[in-house]
Amino acid sequence: MLSNILKKKEQLDAARPLPTHTLRTLKEKLFLEWTYNSNAIEGNTLTLNETKVVLEGITVGGKTLREHLEVINHRDAIRYVEEIIRNQEPLSEWQIKNLHRLVLKGIDDAYAGVYRAEQVFISGAEHVPPAAFLIHEKMEKMMKWYENEGALHHAIKRGAMLHAIFVGIHPFIDGNGRTARLLLNLELMKDGYPPVVIKVENRLAYYEALDKAHTTKDYHDFISLVEAEVENSLDLYLQAIK
């Protein structure tokens, strides 16, 4: 699959710069679907169209304040990802905490950007995240992996593994999944790939691939899932410029 992805990436790169209006509408489409699906995976009940309306500044009746904030916060977190890429900043724990702070802003400010101080469990998963007192050590180890071994991997594998390792640590009380998907797309977008959308209808396969990675250290299924979504996003861009 990776060889097909690389060929499609070459085609996309050869077509750059894309027409301004085309690029803007593609980004709006993917960012909307990314926000909708990432929140829906975590239980947000806003539909795709309702998510679009909230992004336009309109309140949807019958929905909670938290659901509205999750949409606005995710938009702001994407903007922060774009800022990191634009400024060519190396990834750091500080940036990860900032991303998480944006994800939980106004929802749970006491825990926004703050590593958890208690044990948590992942519903439906065999994997149990590490004890709270190990989080700083685990996050430091993750960053060392990212800066050394991770730097040797292709952006797709590096991004997928960073996502999986981060979720396995589960460093925050809430918002780990959204933050992980932001980190995945940060790595992809740094390398010139369009963002991927992990679709809510694929939630079961997504969770199962993550749990397999955490319990067996076999990341193949999860990397393959990410590769499939990378190809989908590339196909969307290539169709738009034909």
UniProtKB/TrEMBL annotation:
GO terms for biological process, alphabetical: cell division
GO molecular function: ATP binding
Binding site for ATP: 174-181, 206-207
Keyword terms: ATP-binding, Cell cycle, Cell division, Nucleotide-binding
Enzyme active site: 170
UniProt superkingdom: Bacteria
Gene3D superfamilies given in the database record: Fido-like domain
Keyword Cell division belongs to the record: yes
Pfam name, any one: Fic
Classification via InterPro entries: Fido (IPR003812), Fido-like_dom_sf (IPR036597), Fido_containing (IPR040198)
Site (Important for autoinhibition of adenylyltransferase activity): 42
Coiled coil: none
Domain Fido per the UniProt entry, residue ranges: 91-228
Xref: PANTHER family: FIDO DOMAIN-CONTAINING PROTEIN (PTHR13504:SF38), FIDO DOMAIN-CONTAINING PROTEIN DDB_G0283145 (PTHR13504)
Full protein name: Cell division protein Fic
Organism this protein belongs to: Oceanobacillus indicireducens
